[in-house]
Amino acid sequence: MKKILSILAIGALLSSCGEKKEEKKGGFEMNRAKTEKKAEKATEGVVVDMDNDGVGPFKDITFPEAIDTELAEAGKAQFNTICTACHMAEQRMIGPALKGVYDRRSPAWVMNMISNPDKMLKEDPIAKALMKEYNNAIMLNQNLSDEDTRAVAEYLRTL
Question: Nearest-5° angle of CA 93, CA 51, CA 117?
């Protein structure tokens, strides 16, 4: 009798330890199979558009070949004061990473976004798409002067 009980116990144990993939419990399906998740590199899903100048006073901006280091230093100070809460150079945060921004956006678009994000987020299709991609986080208007906007724009060239 003990042999039969032992065989039944071993049989029950083996059948319960099999590769049972799905199990229904209380109306819910549970998947017990291990799945391998690959880490995806976060990339900006918004299209690259170098022809869009955005909405605002800046149009057809062309930067000189050489970076104005004095202006860039002033821009860096502004950036570190007001932008680093949401932006980093090479990593997405609340807002997009800004390294290489001029490979994705025109200088006029960047400067219009810096100087008047309220209007850009309401009227510009790229700004709207970025807001959607970043969980509807809005860029706050820092009320920068045109000179401060240009300084931050120059600093972004150095990233």
Answer: 40
